[in-house]
Each structure stands twice: as structure tokens, then as C-alpha cells.
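I have been asked to look over a protein record a colleague put together. What it holds is a sequence and that sequence's fold in C-alpha cell form. Please read both lines and tell me whether the C-alpha cells look consistent with the sequence. I do not need a full report, just your reasoning and any doubts. This is what I was given:
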Amino acid sequence: MHPSNPTLLFVHGAFGGPETFDAVAGLLRKDGFVCNQDVVLPGTGGSPSIGLEEDAAVLRAAPLAVLDAGDD
């Protein structure tokens, strides 16, 4: 990876999943970017007991995990 390339964190929307970004992440990886597609929003699973608060917790934790791993 080139030192100036940041780690890219992909977060899908309500009607997709991490695989939504497979094509673009593949192209970016070829150019030396680190692409993190590990974020899965729990609210997209269809359970009525999971909602915005759970999604927000994942969205808070995901970038912190990237930074904690030293992938900034």
C-alpha cells in the first residue's frame, strides 16, 4: 500500500450488504487501497427488535476498530 492511501471503510445502506461494494472495492484494492467491507448493520436483518440504536453502535465502533488496528 502506498503511504498516502487511506483505509476505506464501506458501509452499506438499508437494502444492501457488504457485497454491494465488491466491484468498486476490488478496483480500489488494485490501486493499493485497503478496503474494509466488514461493517454489517444489524437493522437490515428484518428483526423488528433491532433498529437505529444498534446500527448507530456499529457505526461508532467500525472506524474505531480500523484505527485501533493501525489502519488509518
Remarks:
- The mean pLDDT is 87.
